């Protein structure tokens, strides 16, 4: 489990493809503190398991599903990635509950700048976009952000477009300073919204229902 508060921007040293899977090598420093083999690190929003340490970094294995369902398949040597270690139970929850399970890959469709703020508009797949609400939380490339507004898809596409506002600090300590139109980004919606939807759709009985019947 993560919080969506990026601890460090790392660099992809190399990615070794072996058929349908790959091994990712990331150069970093801060997130190595206290981490052991088998621990989890979020790489631009994608939870991976540390399988080896390198000289000034770590390695992780990426299975075929990860490469297909996230932007990890786009990574090349030199690419910048947002990094976060798994949260500690005794630490502050600075963002929101993030699993590191990517729900879909979005696309930056607009970038607007004004004093003190950069506005990014992101097109999200409909199956992820339905969970987005104004003032709600969304994880974009591993960063916990607030949804400013949402525009439903129309015409030939059913994508949902949402906007996020980035302050100078966020631009400085994440990869968003370099994000531009056309870039693909990993999206994770609020897991609580998904559970609520499933429970309501299933009409699942609760302990309170049993009390009312007795």
Question: How would you describe this structure in keywords?
Answer:
Elongation Factor Tu (Ef-tu), domain 3, 2 domains, 214 residues, 12 strands, alpha+beta, 5 helices, six-stranded antiparallel β-barrel
Word description of this protein:
- With 214 residues, this protein is of the alpha+beta class.
- It folds into two domains: 8-85, Beta Barrel (Elongation Factor Tu (Ef-tu), domain 3); 104-200, Beta Barrel (Elongation Factor Tu (Ef-tu), domain 3), CATH 2.40.30.20.
- It is 16% helix and 41% strand.
- It is built from five helices and twelve strands.
- It has helices spanning 64-69, 126-129, 168-173, 191-202, 207-213; strands spanning 8-18, 21-27, 40-43, 46-54, 57-62, 80-85, 104-114, 117-124, 137-140, 143-151, 160-166, 184-189.
- The protein has a six-stranded antiparallel beta barrel with strand order 1-2-5-4-3-6. Strands 7-8-11-10-9-12 form a six-stranded antiparallel barrel.
- The model has no long low-confidence stretch (mean pLDDT 92).
